[in-house]
From TrEMBL:
This is Acetate--CoA ligase. CDD domains: ACS. It comes from Fluviicola taffensis (strain DSM 16823 / NCIMB 13979 / RW262). GO terms for molecular function: acetate-CoA ligase activity; AMP binding; ATP binding. PROSITE patterns: AMP_BINDING (PS00455).
Amino acid sequence: MNNMQIKSLEEYHEKYALSVSNPEGFWEEIANEFQWMKKWDKVLEWNFTEPDIKWFKGAKLNITENMLDRHLEKRGNKLALIWEPNDPKQRFVRYTYRELYEQVCVFSNALKAQGVKKGDRVCIYMPMIPELSIAVMACARIGAIHSVVFAGFSANALADRIEDAQAKLIITSDGLNRGPKQIPVKRVVDEALEKVECVEKVIVFDCLGWLPHMEEGRDIWWSDAIAGHEKKCVPEEMDAEDPLFILYTSGSTGKPKGVVHTCGGYMVYTAYSFQNVYQYEESDVFWCTADIGWITGHSYIVYGPLLCGATTVMFEGVPTYPDAGRFWQVIDKYGVNQFLTAPTAIRALMACGDDHVLSYSLDSLKIIGTVGEPINEEAWKWYHLHVGKGRCPVVDNWWQTETGGIMISGIGNISPQKPTFAGYPLPGIQPVLLNQEGKEIEGADQEGYLCIKFPWPSILRTTYGDHERCRVTYFSHYDGYYFTGDGAKRDENGMYRIIGRIDDVINVSGHRFGTAEIENAINTNKLVIESAVVGYPHPVKGQSIYAFVVCEHEVPVEEQEFARAEILESVVSEIGKIAVPEKIQFVTGLPKTRSGKIMRRILRKIAEGDMTSIGDTSTLLDPLVVDEIVEKAL
Ligand code: 6R9
């Protein structure tokens, strides 16, 4: 996809200006680089009121034809996917484009044989193994809508997502490897399936040889499901605006929402952003360490790289197993040229000492990226110096599940870098800073709510099954703008720095959780009457969770350890280990306004240990509770 690659800063500015003055012309030229079964009647039709956004209206395509078939002639023998197992002693697996194409076709046929049709929802709950990518693409090939659920979510969280999407089939495995541990997966699916009724079939990949319970008539082994199927499968003709996938993400209220992305726009934007931000060249090897359970894995392990004919690395393990040099060892092993990871991983590895990184050459690296949360200056500098050896640009990728692809970021070695600043918007992206009244803030050195005022091809189209929720969450805060939920700052050169969430979303190790979601989980515990959770700064995780909990009876000190364990168990069971609070403080009441609203601002200050700036508490229903909470703060 070299034709759409920006090659200089000057060209970036030109392209950016064009994308604003003539967005339709700009995107049409890029869209022409892809293979369409039928081209569009209209490039863009939109309003942010309903919202109703259509890119490439009337066009027909199949995204996998663009990821696989299209490359066969030129890149049939090129490596498409390199899989690095959890255990470095185990053999790695490689797929050429032809092999991947064949595997996807076989599994597409297998899904069809299980009765999956265009428009059906398929839930994928799997470890980071090649079959996960194959399953994702097979769904896309036959027009089934995939909903990948991160395999660290609990049975309850999985059941909610299956139910919401009304998934008909689940693809899973017996268990998974995670560093030194092996974790059951099928058992979680079985438990989730006790709570839902829509699922007809479960395909199970044998990852660990565990022989889990197989429900007669419902569960089928992957190897049996694919047996005898052809290595060819005609790709389903999809409308550009047909849904491609659903991905659940947390917001400030209620249960996680199913963000819906569509075929045409998502294809164009993930490829465009990948090609540009990472300046991918034909022989490069690209590695993104995310899990495919999150949007970063969707867009920059599977879709973006394969659309661009790249070699993409997929890693099953964790950064610190068998030791803190694992990432660097893998980079040297495959000659990785572009590397993308999260600030939390950088900080964790930084804390393990420089020796682990200094013993690897990392000569192949050209560009290193960071994504998922704000990166602090110290981590940025360490990454640049020790991983990038002072010569690789750090591209800080700001974006969201809802945006589908990278929105604000450095572009390879082309645009300027400034630690902690994500940088300039990509062409086609029109960010603005709004003040509380919703007025655009102009000029340099300003801070405000980050919103986007014009659609780009991979903007979310709806939240599954509840369009009104999409409107209220993203398009109703400020008329005519997409609301990101982030606060940002713009410097004198127009570069953006993302400050963090301004809503009730906590970002723990790059994972998003809503405060309400965690509170609901805590409140399921029978000891608990009510709770309030807030985020506070954590040296490795970015943010950590602090829970203030009111119990039915005051919990004596000697019983607190037990009660804490019980509450943690509730969170593990409702959401998963990834969402457990670091601190739980038992309190007799929460600071509330007279109208009963919890004053999180005060609790945040207490969690941060900043007792001097708690501010005015006189409007509270019972100001005395604050004194008590402060006194016993953890
Ligand atoms: C891609 C992804 C989105 C939220 C987003 C913001 C935070 C992501 C960031 C960043 C600062 C970056 N975020 N990237 N903050 N700098 N480079 O992470 O999607 O899981 O939906 O999270 O993460 O707060 O609003 P998602």
